[in-house]
Write a structure and sequence with these properties.
Order of helices and strands: HEEHHHHHHHHHHHHH
Strand order of the largest sheet: 1-2
Shape: elongated
Low-confidence stretches: 1-6, 11-16, 163-219, 285-292
Number of helices: 14
Radius of gyration: 48 Å
Structural class: mainly alpha
Distance between the termini: 98 Å
Mean pLDDT: 76
Largest sheet: 2 strands, antiparallel
């Protein structure tokens, strides 16, 4: 092809105008292989795309292959950087979510601990209010009537003849011959006198000496003990042979504690029910008696004893125990409750820190076992092994160190397995939370 001369300038302009203004152009688009081009209708873009396509299929274009690999690496670098950035942002979001969840969990635990503390204060205040109300409702003791003496009364005979004391039937040492002698002497004394006859000279004159015949003692409820120390002294006295007065008072206090609803029981009543045992020196007499209530089982007694005890005393049943149609507690719930009772921290008298530790321990235990699979996940994540034998031991530690991990490890060391957690502790914990919060 020969170049055009200067005389052919009009033809050159016509060709340039025809090629510079293409017709039926498609809009600009981005194509992965060619970049931003006109897919059709553009002679320049079409020639460019044909040129790139021919070079990609030509084995004699090594420089094109190098450029193609550079473009591929640049795109991969961009993709990898975007992927890394996405992962980084995802981790930041997850970390923020964990921090928020942990903060809410901490606030919930604090609110739960505060709720337990306020409930305990409310129970104590209600108990004090009930005791004060009972004192206000008690009628004043009636005044003893003043009347002339009865010449046949045992008290008068005992004062006149001190060498022959008369025993009243209420005394355990009363003997039949003394009673018969007293009645015979009273009959002889009254046989020689009419109703209107004056009293013997040996008797005091009623107008000059006012007589006061004691009225029989009325049955009054025992005064509630105000401290655990008083209960300990009373129980010790009741275990001394022959101390019927202390024994009767302890039994009356136990009956009153059994009648008190579970939420309104005081710490003194709980201590009495958990400590009192009938002394060995008390033997049944020939007189028919009502069946005595079941003793509060000991800590190490089997679950069946606790089921029978709470079936007879439903008001004392702890939280988290479901009941069947007959009102008997579920054995599985009772077994879980007794397991937690033997693994929880010990509360020391006059030690508020130990009480706070137990309250937080119960909150963490119910939260741990109420979530299905949480106990198993903590054991697997911490690589904690479960003891092959069950050995109960109370938790030892401060309230600040109580977490789900420490509680799960303590239960595992004591031999609590994953099936026990799923089948017994899980249903008990969920029922416990419903009893407390709903």
């Amino acid at each position: 092809m020969y170049p055009l001369s200067s005389s052919d300038e009009p033809f050159r302009v016509a060709v340039r105008d025809t090629r510079g203004i293409p017709t039926l152009l498609s809009p600009w688009e981005f194509l992965d292989d060619y970049g931003i081009v006109h897919p059709s209708g553009c002679d320049v873009c079409s020639a460019y795309m044909k040129h790139v396509a021919d070079a990609s299929y030509s084995p004699h274009q090594p420089a094109f292959q190098i450029a193609f690999q550079d473009r591929k690496r640049a795109r991969e670098d961009t993709y990898n950087k975007g992927l890394a950035e996405g992962l980084r942002r995802q981790k930041e979001e997850e970390r923020d979510l964990r921090d928020t969840s942990e903060r809410y969990r901490l606030e919930r635990n604090q609110a739960r601990d505060e709720l337990f503390s306020l409930r305990a204060q409310l129970d104590s205040t209600r108990a004090d209010c009930d005791r004060l109300q009972e004192k206000l409702n008690q009628p004043p003791p009636p005044a003893d009537p003043v009347s002339p003496p009865d010449p046949t009364s045992p008290e008068l005979l005992a004062s006149l003849f001190p060498q022959q004391p008369l025993a009243t039937p209420a005394s355990p040492q009363a003997q039949l011959p003394d009673c018969v002698a007293a009645r015979s002497f009273a009959a002889v004394l009254s046989a020689g006198h009419d109703d209107d006859a004056p009293l013997p000279q040996s008797l005091p004159d009623p107008p000059s000496q006012p007589w006061q015949i004691p009225s029989p003692p009325s049955h009054k409820p025992p005064k509630p003990a105000k401290s655990i120390k008083q209960i300990q002294s009373l129980i010790k006295a009741a275990h001394q042979p022959g101390n019927y007065q202390a024994l009767t008072k302890v039994k009356a206090l136990c009956s009153e504690a059994h009648r008190t609803p579970r939420e309104q029981k005081t710490e003194v009543q709980r201590y009495l029910l958990s400590t009192w045992r009938t002394p060995d020196w008390e033997h049944p007499t020939s007189i028919s008696r009502l069946p005595a209530p079941l003793n509060n089982p000991r800590l190490e007694d089997p679950v069946e004893c606790w089921v029978a005890y709470y079936a007879s005393n439903p008001s004392s049943c702890p939280k988290g125990i479901r009941r069947d149609a007959d009102g008997r507690p579920y054995t599985t719930d009772m077994r879980a409750s007794r397991t937690v009772a033997r693994l929880r921290p010990v509360v020391l008298p006059n030690d508020p820190e130990s009480r706070d530790t137990r309250q937080k321990f119960m909150a963490v235990v119910t939260e741990l076992f109420s979530e299905p699979g949480a106990f198993e996940n903590i054991l697997r994540r911490g690589a904690f092994s479960v003891s092959p034998q069950v050995a109960y031991a109370p938790y030892v530690g401060s309230a600040d160190a109580l977490t789900m991990e420490t509680v799960a490890r303590h239960f595992a060391v004591c031999g609590i397995t994953i099936p026990m957690a799923d089948n017994e502790l899980g249903p008990w914990a969920r029922e416990y939370i419903r009893d407390v919060y709903y």
